[in-house]
Design goal:
Butyryl-Coa Dehydrogenase, subunit A, domain 1, Butyryl-CoA Dehydrogenase, subunit A, domain 2, 3-stranded mixed β-sheet
């Protein structure tokens, strides 16, 4: 099996998800969630009953076994209709499920992974800071050990969903500043803990995902047992944060972009056959036909690169270059696809009554999420040993 042959169980999953989307996520509801910046937890809970959050959890912890092809297909399908619901799924299956499965202690796996499999545990990421983006090792948020507790102080930025998640998966500096890469720990911080201030940021798109926020920690106390990896994880956060989890995040974003682009192409394709000008559908015009042919071709290339990445992830091989290539190519190409589709709709692609306007707003973030395009280019050149 390779990325060009979709397994039968993934095709069956797609059909199930499409039926769910038609029933539980009609366009008018999704548009209202977007306008209200609302995360529909009731709909998300119904989604979890399909078992999709178990796709990243090993069987021994109550899951169905790690299946990245199915996980990425789930993200793609959900993003054809709602980035909000898809983000909730990522918070659970990916941010929580994948990271816990890979780097948590055995005790933490037994405690948390069954909850992930049931859709009851969602993580936000607490990685970026006001002065720290790609240079993660320079984080300033500090954790001081005080007996069986940690005291956390600092600020995180671009923290998605802390108003709807159960823990913030946070990278903190836990050792001397000069011990770069050997002074970091990953900790789980409940967003409701005393001393936390959550300040939502107003963004152009990505509505209904629980918001992206600044999160400030003022003498926040959490139990030491919340250190990922337990005692062995103290000051060993760097090895965990640069594990394959961050590589997989790149194809999660690729899948999001692919889903949004696919929805845009479907809408433009249909619109071109319904919109009558000069007595005939606009799809009869060569310029429109060429635009549609180009976006269909680019969409297929995005699909192939996304699922090549998913296939590699299922092989449990280090594929940092391929994941960065996927993230770079798919997000930039998908943005071009959506903007082309918007032009096909003309003025209707610019108004709130049509989904195309939302696709554009949501897609603009994709080349930034999970590491910007510039960072992916650096990753590719550096990993391929291009002399500096």
């Amino acid at each position: 099996m390779n990325a060009f042959q979709e397994p039968e169980h993934v095709s069956m999953l797609r059909n199930t998800l499409r039926q769910f989307i038609d029933k539980e996520m009609p366009r008018e509801k999704v548009n209202q969630w977007d306008k209200d910046d609302h995360f529909p937890r009731d709909v998300f809970d119904k989604l979890c009953k399909l078992g999709v959050t178990s796709l990243t959890v090993p069987v021994e912890y109550g899951g169905s076994g790690r299946d990245m092809m199915a996980t990425i297909a789930t993200i793609e399908e959900l993003c054809t209709r709602s980035l909000g619901i898809a983000s909730g799924y990522i918070f659970c299956a990916c941010y929580a499920g994948l990271n816990l499965s890979e780097v948590a202690s055995e005790e933490q796996k037994k405690k948390f992974l069954p909850e992930v499999a049931n859709g009851n545990l969602l993580f936000s990421y607490g990685i970026s800071e006001p002065d720290v983006g790609a240079d993660v090792a320079s984080v300033k948020t500090k954790a001081i050990r005080d007996g069986d507790e940690l005291i956390i102080n600092g600020t995180k930025r671009w923290c998605s969903g802390p108003n709807v998640t159960d823990y913030i998966y946070t990278i903190v500096r836990s050792g001397p500043e000069e011990d770069r890469y050997r002074n970091l720990s990953l900790v789980l911080i409940p967003p409701t803990a005393d001393g936390i201030i959550i300040e939502p940021q107003q963004t152009l798109g990505q509505k209904g995902v629980g918001g992206t926020c600044d999160v400030t920690f003022n003498d926040v106390r959490i139990p030491f047992e919340n250190v990922i990896g337990g005692e062995d994880g103290w000051n060993d956060g760097w090895s965990k944060i640069v594990s394959t989890g961050l590589d997989v995040e790149k194809i999660e974003v690729s899948a999001m972009a692919l889903g949004i682009a696919r929805a845009a192409v479907d809408d433009a394709w249909q619109y071109s056959q319904e919109r009558i000008q000069f007595g005939k559908p606009i799809c009869h015009n060569q310029s429109i036909r060429h635009m549609l042919a180009e976006v269909k071709t680019k969409l297929e290339a995005c699909r192939l690169m996304t699922y090549q990445g998913a296939w590699l992830a299922d092989q449990n091989v280090i594929a940092t270059v391929e994941m960065s290539m996927s993230k770079l190519f798919v997000t930039e190409t998908a943005l071009d696809i959506v903007l082309t589709c918007q032009r096909i709709l003309g003025a209707y692609g610019y108004v709130r009554e049509f989904d195309m306007e939302r696709y554009v707003r949501d897609m603009l973030a994709m080349p930034i999420l999970g590491g910007s395009s510039a960072i992916q280019k650096n990753n590719i050149a550096n990993r391929l040993n291009l002399p500096k």
